[in-house]
């Protein structure tokens, strides 16, 4: 049997009838097999342990789903920023709270779509495995009604795409994915790999699958976002994480060029191990960051609960109820507080002023009417990473 050249371990470039060469990825798993020795083995152990600590730390939170909701928004912001959006986490939270501003970027709907796609995928995982069908559903949710809505949401491409500097032609591209008539077959093969019993550690399998998806580049737009969602869906499907709180967009954004270089080195040189080291290092770092954020949230909550108990007098009970609400909706109005605690507007306004006087809330609009108040310290725990 003829041995595979290292440069063709991940696939090879095939000349097409119209003259350009497109990359045809090889069937997974890689051949020769992934070498799990040395630094890759060490990183795998570190990443596994960090994921375990993260999963445990989330379950210690009083309301883990509230933390998850904020984390999904943070990921939506970061993943969308990689694709060129300008909206920040504060923009998204302000839009949710119906704080209207002429300075807000007009691409916040793309971030909302990402949140909707994430939540749809997590809900579907209860009855549908990670599959081509799920990937197509996620892609449709991601692009409907926003930039890219005319690029066939939910449908694999039927034309050739390519990757390169803005405005470059096909002949100038830095990477040309497989031709459109091969996309369905390649996605089908990827699905088979995902559910095969090939003896690979799960994180290694997920790292390989992400790289293969990005190489297939099956859609005209949204491939990066769908590929990053795929990582989280696979971790949740296999119950490595009970809550969807591992997102690598911050790591990929911070090391953007290295990310692209590693993916290209897989295609050009079969450098799977180097990519997997990079991927596992990201899992380790991001898991540690999320675990630390969970710890900080617990400390913040306890500090502010104590502050309310000690300083709010007879209003402490309602104050605690508002504080818990802020962990889900960190931007509020006095009317929202009034509806939450079922009291008069004047009493709600007095309570909000107590929050402001004690530095828990701050007014963010600068207006005398239709004011909104932000739980700044809580947002900053996420916003410091989300930009």
Automatic annotation (TrEMBL):
SUPFAM superfamilies: Fic-like. InterPro entries: Fic/DOC_N, Fido, Fido-like_dom_sf, Fido_containing, SoFic-like. It catalyses: L-tyrosyl-[protein] + ATP = O-(5'-adenylyl)-L-tyrosyl-[protein] + diphosphate; L-threonyl-[protein] + ATP = 3-O-(5'-adenylyl)-L-threonyl-[protein] + diphosphate. Its EC number is 2.7.7.108. Residues 130-281 form the Fido domain. Keywords: ATP-binding, Nucleotide-binding, Nucleotidyltransferase, Transferase. Pfam families: Fic, Fic_N. Homodimer. Adenylyltransferase that mediates the addition of adenosine 5'-monophosphate (AMP) to specific residues of target proteins. This is Protein adenylyltransferase. It comes from Allohahella marinimesophila.
